[in-house]
Amino acid sequence: MNPQVMGKLKKQLEQELQEIEKRLDESERPQATELSNYDNHPADNASDLTDQLTEMAIDEHRGDEAEEIKRALQAMEEGTYGKCAVCGEEIPIDRLEAMPKALTCVEHAEQKADDLRPVEEDVLSANSKSDDFLELEEFGSSDTPQDKSL
Predict the structure, then answer these.
(1) Which long-range contacts (CB under 8 A, 24 or more apart) does 65-72 make?
(2) Zinc finger (dksA C4-type) locations (predicted)?
(3) What phi and psi values does residue 86 have, to the nearest 5 degrees?
(4) Considering only CA atoms, which of 74, 82, 76, 69 is closest in space to residue 19?
């Protein structure tokens, strides 16, 4: 890879990492707006909780992004940057310019995204009346006789 392009990408990654770390440092954990929830409407409590969870999710995403950037910078130091971590083929420069933290080629990046499916999907089936469900239904359900006749 061209040293000028490598330097440009490294500088871009370092700036991005610096911005993310600054945002993480400035980020405050949302505090409850009230000392007592006794007189609060449940919707107000739910709004506070939603705000807290949203901020936590954003911080987690920023942390994950910072880790990806650190891995890309580490690959630059080791001399493996620009080669797919899975197959070893050269990653096209267009991909690296568009996404400097990429460590895999497009084909393997898509494969990685497929691996991120929730583990629950392995257990649950699309058929709502699976064997597991029927077994549980023996212990009772809220269905009325009219529901079962359909």
Answers:
(1) 65/20, 65/101, 66/17, 66/20, 66/21, 66/24, 68/101, 69/13, 69/16, 69/17, 69/20, 69/101, 70/17, 71/101, 71/103, 72/13, 72/100, 72/101, 72/102, 72/103
(2) 84-108
(3) -95, -55
(4) 69
| Distance of alpha carbon 17 from alpha carbon 73, whole angstroms | 10
The answer to whether 74 touches 59, Cβ cutoff 8 Å, is no
pTM above 0.85, yes or no: no
Q: Give the angle subtended at the CA of 35 by the CAs of 32 and 38, to the nearest 5°.
A: 105
Other C-beta atoms closer than 10 Å to the C-beta of 108 total 17
In order of 32, 38, 46, 104, the CA distances from 42 in angstroms are: 13, 10, 6, 47
pLDDT in tens, the chain (150 residues): 788 888 899 999 999 999 999 888 887 766 655 566 666 777 877 888 888 888 888 889 999 999 999 999 999 999 899 898 888 889 888 989 999 998 988 888 776 555 666 767 666 655 555 666 677 777 777 777 777 665
